[in-house]
Structures are given as C-alpha cells and as structure tokens.
Amino acid sequence: MISRRLYSIFITCTLLGVSAASGNAQIVPDATLPVNSVVTLNGNTFAIGSGTTVGGNLFHSFSEFSVPNQMSAFFNNALTINNIITRVTGGQISNIEGNIRANGTANLFLLNPNGIIFGSGAQLNIGGSFIGTTANSLKFADGGEFSAISPQASPLLTLNVPIGLQFGVNPAPIVNRSVANSLVTGTPRVGLETPGKTLALVGGDLLLEGGNLSALQGQIELGSVGTGIVSLTPTATGFGLGYQGIQNGTIKLTGGAAVNASGLGGGTIRLRGGQVTLAEGAKLVAETFGDINGGGIDIQANQFNLQGGAFVSTATFGAGEGGNLTVRAETVELIGTTPLQTSQQLLTGTFNPLNLSNGLFSLSAGSGRGGDLIIDAKRLVVQNGANLFTSTFVSGIAGNLTVISDSAEFTNGSLLFTGTAGTGNAGTANISAKHLRVLDGSAISTTPGGTSTGRGGNLNITADVVELRGTPAGAVIPGGLFTTTLGTSDAGDLSVTTGQLLISKGAQISASSAGSGRGGNLTVTADVVDLGGNSPDGRFLSGLFTSSSLLTVSGQQGTAPSGNLSITTRRLIVRDGGQISAATGSDGAAGNLRVNASESVEVRGFATNIDPSVEQVSFGVIGDGIVPSAIDANSRGGGKAGDLTIDTGRLTIRDGAEIGVRSISSGSAGNLQVTADSILLEQGTISALKIVGTGGNIELNAQNLQLNNGIINASVLGNGTGGDISITTSALIFGGNSNVSVSSLGTGNAGNISMSADRVALNQGAITATSFLGKGGNITVQVTEDLVLRNRSEISTRAGIEDTGGGDGGNITLTTGVLAVLENSNINANAFQGKGGNIQIYTQGVFVSPDSAITASSEQGINGVVRINSPDIDPSSAIVELPTDVTDASNQITTGCAADRGNKFVITGQGGLPSNPTQLLQNQAAWQDWRFLDHVETGVSMSSSAPQTRTEEVFGDRKTSLVEATSWQVNQSGEVELVAHLPNAQGSWYRPARCS
C-alpha cells in the first residue's frame, strides 16, 4: 500500500509539474561520505566539487538533487576520473529541468530510488555515458555496494568498475520530457544526448512523454524492472545491461517521443520491459548514414504495442549495413492509422522511406545492405494498415524478414513486405506459425516495384493452419500472399507448407509477373486446401495463381515466362468461383500446373456478380457476371499455355465447374492429363480450347469415369487442328446429356478420340468428332465387354454443314464384346460435301433396335462404308463323329411309367413378364430349375424292425426291368407287397421321383 501511494504521489507531482526544484535548495549534499561533496552556486551554475575519489571513481552523495530550468549542475571532476557516481538519499524526486555537465570523458551515474523527472529543458553535456536509475544501490565486483537507501552504513567505496544495479520492491518511475536543442550545431532537438556513448534509463516504469533521447552512433538502454539486479558490462560505447531473472514494468513512449541512435554508423537501442508501448507518433530510430555498419534495435517485453503512427526504423542511407530490428515478446500488437495506405503507396510509387509511420522498418536506401527484421512472439497482431517492412530503394540488398509465432494475424489492410524499388535484390520472408491469418485486404508480399531491376525475394510460409480471407470493396489489390513482379525484376518463389490452407472472399496467393520480369514458382504442400468465393465488389476471385500478367491489376501485362504451380495435398476443394491458374496474358509463357491429391480433388460451383474486368481474364466465363470454379492452365496472348496434370484418388467436377487448358490467342495450348481412381463429372466440364492453332490434348486415366450432364471437350475455334482426347478406364458411364467431343469450328481438322475400357454405357450420351470446314476427327473405342448406346445416344463423326461444305467425315472404329444400339440411338460417320467416314465394328454380337441406326453417309459426296466384323469360325472344328451302328430306339423304351389318370407335369418359373426381344438379355437366368436332384429316397421297409432308409443315385445303371404296381396286399409273413392288378385306378396321392 505504501509503495502504491508513493507511486500515485509521484505521478500526481509529475502531471502538475511540482518538484523539489521549486524550493530554494536544489542540490544539497549530505554528510555520508568520507569526503563529502561541496556545492557552490555561481550565477546559474551549481558547481559540484570534492566528493570521495577512489581510483578512477568519484563518489558524490546528496540529500536533494534537482536542476531548475535555465540552470546547470557542473561536476568539476578531474580529467583522470572515469566514473562519477552520484546518489540521492533524502527521499525527494530529482527534477532535472536544466543542464548536467562534467569534465572530460567521465561516465555519470545518477542514483535516486525516489524517482527522476527530466523536464522539457533537461540536457546532458558530458563526455562519457549517462546512467539514470531508481535502483537502491550500485554494486561492485569486489562485493562493495554504494546504497542510496542506507547511506549511514559505512560505504565500501572501491576503485572497481560498477557491475550491477540493485533494485528493491516497486522501483520508482523515470519520466523524460526533454526536447532541448542539441549541443551539436545544426542538429534537431534531441533532448538528452550522449553522442557515441551509452544513455541508459533504468528504473520502475519509464515514461517518455514527448521527450527525446539521443546517442548518435552510441547505445540507448531503456529498462523497466522490478526486484533484482541489472548487470553492467563495460563495452566500447559504455555499458551493456543484462536483465536475467528480472521482473519487468512499463515503458511507454507518447506525444512524439523519439529515441535516436543514428549516425555515420547506426547505434544500438535496447528496450526491456513488461509492457512496452509506442503511441502518438513515437519512434525508435537507429539509422546509418555513412559507411559504418549499424548496431540495430532490440526489444524484449511481455507485451509490445505500437499504435497511433508510431514506428521503429533501422534503415541505412549509406554504404554501411543497417542494423537488425528484433522484437521478442509474448504478444506483439501493431495498430496502424489508415488501412491499405502503404500498399497503395507502393503500387503508385509514392512510398517515401524518409516519411515512415505505423510499423517496424528495416530499409536500405543506399548501397549498404538493409538489416534483418525478426519478430518472435507467441501472438502477433498487425492491423489497420500497420506494417512489417524490409526493402531496398537503391542498390543495397534488402534485409530478410522472419516471423516466429504461435498465432500471427494480419487484418484490415495491414502489410508484411520485403521488396525492391532499385537495383538491389529484395530479402526473403520466412514465416513460421501454428496459425497464420491474413484477413480483410492484408497482404504478405516480396514484390519488386515497377522501376526496379533487383530480384524479388522468396516467401516461405510454414504453419499448421493458413487462413486467407477477404478483400475490401474498392481495394486496388487483393489480400493474400504475393511474390509478384511489376517491372523488369524477376519475382521470387512462394512456398506454403501447412496442415490446412483456407482461402476465401477474394484473397489470393500469387507468384506472377506483370512486367518483363519472370514470374516465380508457387508450391503448396498441405493436408487440406479449400478455396473459393470472391470480394464483395466482384473484382477479385479467391485462388492460387502463377501468371505472366497479373490477373488482379488492370492494364498490367508480362512478357517473361511465369513460374510453375505445384499443389501436393490429401484433399483439394475449389468452390464458388475459386480459381487455380497458371496463365499468361501476353508473350510470356505460362508455367505448368500440377496437382497431386492423394484422396480427392473437388471442383464445384461458380461465382456471381463478378466485375467485367475479372470476367475478361478468368477461365471458363459463362457471362452475365458468372465465373465457374476452375483449375486451368491458359494463355491469352502469344505465350504458350502450360500443361495441367492432376493425380488423385477421386476427381469430382460438378455444378458448373471446369478444369482445362486453353489458349485464346496465338500462343500454343497446353495439354491436360488426369490420373485417378475415379472421375465424376456432374454438370462439370473438362476442356482443351484453342482459338487459332493446334489445340491441347486431354488424357484421362481412371478406374471409373462417370458423366452426368458432364462435358469432355477438345476444340479449336479458328484455323487449326483440334486437340485429341484419350480415355483409359474400366467403366465409362454416360448419363443425362453428357458428351465427349472434339471439334474444329474453323478450317482445321477436328481432333481424334480414343477410348479403352472394359465397359461403356451411354444413356443420352454422345461421343462426337465434328469439323465445320476441315476433316472430321476419328473415333476409336476399344471395349473388352459391352458397349451400349440407349435413349438417343450417339457415336458420330461429321464434317461440314450446308453453309460450310466441309471435308471428309472422320472414321469410327469400335472393338467390343457386344455392341447394342437401342432406343433411337445412332452410330454415324457423316459428311456434307466430302466423303462420309467409314465405320469398322469388331464384335461378338450386334444388337440394333428398329428405331436406331448405323450409317456412313455424305449428303453431297460419296457415302462411307459400314463393316461389321465377326470372329472367324471353322464349321468343322466342333463336329463329333457318330457311331456306325445305330441303336434301335424301341429297345430303350420302358413300357411302364405311363401318365396315369390324375397326374400332371407343370413347369413354373420365377414369375414376371417375358423379356423384350429387342433389348439385351438381362443378367438373370431365363429358366430356373427348382428341383433337388442330388439324391432321392427309393424305398422304406415296412417290417417290424426299425425303419431303414437307403439312397441311390438318380441316374445309374438299371438292369432290372420295371413293372408298374397297381395295388398292394399283405403276404403270409405279414409284409406288405405291391402288385399290378388294381381294377379301378385312383388319383395318385404320392408322386415318386422315379418309377421303381
């Protein structure tokens, strides 16, 4: 309670400006030293002399120590003194409003456990380091201690260098409001300064309320601590402080407070606290302007919070390397002031490295390499336009950017960026997290600028879950992950390794080129990939992209090749207009797209209300603002489209979705290959489209391939040859207006269709090869079992129509066990002006219903030929030689077993209607024998002994002639005998299995 009350009084006095400086006594020595200090007031200067000297240490002790405004405290030490060690013992706060100075290069320690306030006019004019602290005592290597709370104890004064600051419970705060002019002419207002040396404030809470600290090319230490010892270690610039095992308090910079260690070689800034906050335009700066390497900025805290336009920078503007910027904390929270501000400045080329705000920056604006930026936090939150930024703007190489976090979240237009706007290369961004979320237009990017020649950096993401969601309406660029190049620079590669990758609401992952630079490779390794949806204004579709022209930036086109896109996953879902695309928009070749999904690939649905600018560059546009979900490799310019390869257990394409390869300009189309256990197209499409030139090929390999309102199509719309379709499967099933087709709508020939299967069934299905002006494609189907066409199905080739004339019809070759053409189905090889195609059928049997047909015709040309080839049969191969001695049949007829009165013979089947003779024989037997003929009972003894049953084979040698019994009688032995003289026959009550 007492410590809290003292702290409350301290804060109240601070806010009201009340201090000991308002009294007459400002600097008052006590009488606790062997040689006490002497203070003489000369005008506006307190001259401080005497004190106790031990070796290079000079000890002073005061009951009060404050310096009023416009006045000075002058330590008139000998030049041989290394350390001036000052304590305040009277229980009063030290209010420093004026100047503190000393002779030579001595270090100055100011020790006041009751608190220290540096007012707006406070200055330091000393040649050495300054350590201002609210510690209880100063410890030395020999065990000595110089205490401010026990001044009456005999001090063990020593010539040793101090090694530690001993703090008690709840140390008092230190406040800095100093904005005094620098003592170096022409430099800005810097507050407290120790050029080239250490400036350390170590106490309870540290409050920089608009105050400045400066140690040009030196070291600044800010430590907010609790009970324990802070170690002191001599360094070239003064002292290094250690905080092992120390409890931490609060460090807060507000009101434009500045901590600056810049110079020809950037100095070092270190912060240690529990809660470290930079707000209201506060800044930490350790920038390099010469050829000396910078020292960097190191922040360690439980919680680090940056907001209100504050920033931290370790930039280099010279030949020296910039220092590293490191933040380690349980929680790091960066809150900007304007969403998307930096992203839009980078895109428009208006970003200024001399005008920073809202984030952490490690830049190279000279020839020196930029420092690295490292964030190590359990929880990282970057929101509302805040930035993590390492880039180069001239010839220097940008630093690398590393994030290590359990949870990293970028929201509301925030940015993690390492790029290049000059000749230097961008750095590499590495993010390792359990859960990475990039939301609401935020981006993680290693993008080179439009005028840069340096290479873009690589982006590597490793996380358990990666969630990319949302792009705000009106945004110029989408949110997501990017290694895109906008100029002559090559883009870096992008790698995502995760358990779950979730992309929605217009977020994207892109490694692309919108200039003459080469696009990067995009590699995704995940257990589950789920992407789909679009931004609220319909300007951005969710997806994965590699391209040589940005899908998302209007007017940008690339000329260099794009990179490859590779996805390795257990399960891939593309839905609601989502896109996976390897594309080119001009002369640059598109990369290849490969999907390896061990369990399944599902592409489903479409997006609506899509902006027309997106429709123009999307795959498989339906029109009216509708864009299907798609996996594609395509070209919209002179560059070659890449190949698309999918290897999966189960491929499902449904509800309007598509996969395909496409070229709608002069570039060559790529090929599409799918290997799967099963393929299902339910209102889905697999396509290979070419406007002019040779179309891409489609190759499908699956155990089962089923189409339900599905389409597989390879076509060319202009002058050129359509692509081929090759299908290898065990079972191929067409249902509900499905079709497999190749076509040429220009002067070129249609491609060919080749199928190999165990069974093929078409129900309202079609296999077609069509050309308008050129030759119709060929169709080859090999089926080991049944090929069935029913319900208006067709297999057809056609060349030309009345308006175009056209060439010869394509040929059809069918090889199957059984061919059935039923219910108004057709097999046609037709032409309009050219020769009709030929039809070759190799089969064991052909069934054609009366309403179906097999034709090869030409309306104006020569008809084709239909040949049905049955297997060659040798009629003599199954002839059995008959015996020369013909048996007299009368000798084999038994006269018994007549069909007596009352008996009947009935055959009963399983019921139902007889089969339609025009349909295929069904898979059940036409007649079923219900009898059990293995064994039958042949007789039962009626004697007095136990009955005995004997059996014999139904069919066997029977040498005894049979006589039919007509009655029975009892003989002399009492046995029943069967006899053959019953005069009146009756209906049989027992029907034996055979006569005996």
What does this structure look like?
There is one protein chain. This protein is mainly β and 996 residues long. The chain has a domain of 203 residues. It contains three helices and 73 strands. The N terminus and C terminus are likely disordered.
Could you list the spans in which at least 5 consecutive residues all have pLDDT below 50?
Answer: 1-24, 550-556, 873-880, 919-960, 982-996
Give the DSSP E fraction (strand runs of 2 or more residues).
over 45%
Q: Helices and strands: which structural class?
A: mainly beta
Q: How many helical stretches?
A: 3
Distance between the termini: 121 Å
What is the CA-based Rg, rounded? 47 Å
Keywords for this entry:
single chain, 996 residues, mainly beta, six-stranded parallel barrel, five-stranded mixed beta sheet, 73 strands, 46% strand, disordered C terminus, Hemagglutinin-related protein
Topology record:
Elements: H1 2-16, E1 27-29, E2 37-42, E3 45-50, E4 52-54, E5 57-65, E6 72-75, E7 83-88, E8 94-96, E9 99-102, E10 107-111, E11 116-118, E12 123-125, E13 130-133, E14 137-140, E15 145-147, E16 162-167, E17 174-176, E18 192-193, E19 198-203, E20 206-209, E21 212-214, E22 219-224, E23 228-235, E24 238-242, E25 250-254, E26 258-260, E27 263-265, E28 268-278, E29 283-285, E30 288-292, E31 296-306, E32 311-313, E33 325-335, H2 341-348, E34 359-364, E35 373-383, E36 387-392, E37 401-411, E38 415-420, E39 429-439, E40 443-445, E41 459-469, E42 480-482, E43 494-504, E44 508-510, E45 522-532, E46 543-547, E47 565-575, E48 579-584, E49 593-604, E50 606-607, H3 612-615, E51 627-628, E52 630-635, E53 644-654, E54 658-663, E55 672-682, E56 685-690, E57 698-708, E58 711-716, E59 725-744, E60 753-757, E61 759-771, E62 779-783, E63 786-790, E64 794-799, E65 812-821, E66 826-831, E67 839-848, E68 853-855, E69 866-869, E70 935-940, E71 949-953, E72 967-970, E73 976-979
Parallel strand pairs: 3-6, 5-7, 6-9, 7-10, 8-11, 9-12, 10-13, 11-17, 13-19, 17-20, 18-21, 19-22, 20-25, 21-26, 22-28, 25-28, 26-29, 27-30, 28-31, 29-32, 31-33, 32-34, 33-35, 34-36, 35-37, 36-38, 37-39, 38-40, 39-41, 40-42, 41-43, 42-44, 43-45, 44-46, 45-47, 46-48, 47-49, 48-52, 49-53, 52-54, ...
Antiparallel strand pairs: 1-5, 2-3, 4-5, 14-15, 14-16, 16-23, 23-24, 50-51, 70-71, 72-73
